[in-house]
Amino acid sequence: MQISEFIQQLPKVELHLHIEGTLEPEMKFTLAERNGIELPHKSAAEVRASYDFTDLSSFLTAYYDGMSVLRTAEDFYDLALAYLRKAAGQNVRYAGIFFDPQAHTSRGVTFDTVISGLRRAQLQAEQQLGIRSALIMCFLRDFQAEYAMATLLESLPYKQWIIGVGLDSDETGNPPAKFAAVYARARQEGYLLTMHCDVDIENSAEHIRQAVEDIGVARIDHGTNVIENPELVEVLVERGLGLTSCPISNTWVSDGSKVGLVKELVGRGVKVCVNSDDPAYFGGYIADNFQLVADEGQVDNSFLAQLSRNAVDISWAPLALKAELRAEIDALFK
Length: 334
Ligand code: HPA
Ligand code: ZN
Fold this sequence. Notes:
Layout: H1 3-9, E1 12-18, H2 25-34, H3 44-49, H4 56-66, H5 73-89, E2 92-99, H6 101-105, H7 111-129, E3 132-140, H8 145-155, E4 162-168, H9 180-188, E5 192-197, H10 204-215, E6 219-222, H11 230-239, E7 242-245, H12 247-253, H13 259-267, E8 272-274, H14 279-282, H15 286-297, H16 301-314, H17 319-331
Parallel strand pairs: 1-2, 2-3, 3-4, 4-5, 5-6, 6-7, 7-8
Helix pairs in contact: 1-15, 5-7, 8-9, 16-17
This protein binds hypoxanthine and zinc ion.
């Protein structure tokens, strides 16, 4: 079987996907028109041509600018349904979906508007496309911890719709420790815990140590700089604490895809998986990320299947679904 066909057939789980990062330029124009917003660019092609990220911060500028067209619950519904359709088409069976409520509440869009639109898309996609998903609420780490705490409290009436919390946005100077109290409260409230430790940030390895040892997260988003601390790599292995790596994203915000590190860490027993992060900005959904691992890493189908098993293992999907997916992945080799 061709590797691209194997990737298509492989049952997949996506765990690092920002729903706002799935806003394709075409949809940006549609929503801008619907909401009476003038855009500085004339066409989707022009928007795409303007993407020239060299680091996390230059990406984030475009990312926050893009989402200004998201205003109504219908906008969030359309956005999420378009992603779930695409993901289901690539045989993603379960997605943990990040959303950034503060990026919306800070510009006057209510928490309820955001989550009710996303929720409606999730239910429809599950019923009509068979793709399961769960929402993970991210705090913006470049805002004050008090604002994150207020957002956590604001989320409590919607707790049944949110499986866990994450931490994203500009990491430089915003270590995990800044959010220790917010994470302690989130844990108390029953949320599961993850956070970004972005690639090649100042003090990356120390941030990963804080996330693991001081905060006690269940997994880490990106996090491949753990390679700099072999003892911490051992801790990840012992605790089954996985990493959600995003190869195409890495090529835009750091030097290279880090596929070599993914291979190295998987070889040492770390549960690393592959994800698309912000596919509308970085130009590739999950299958494209698997393909990059195959091309650059010169790995075989069994390695790609291992990445998918790792995603199942470290996901927060229902246990019955996890068992079903493991059996389906194994069956590909029969
Ligand atoms: N890192 C930090 N912030 C983000 C990311 C990311 O990968 N994607 C969207 N916001
Ligand atoms: Zn991310």
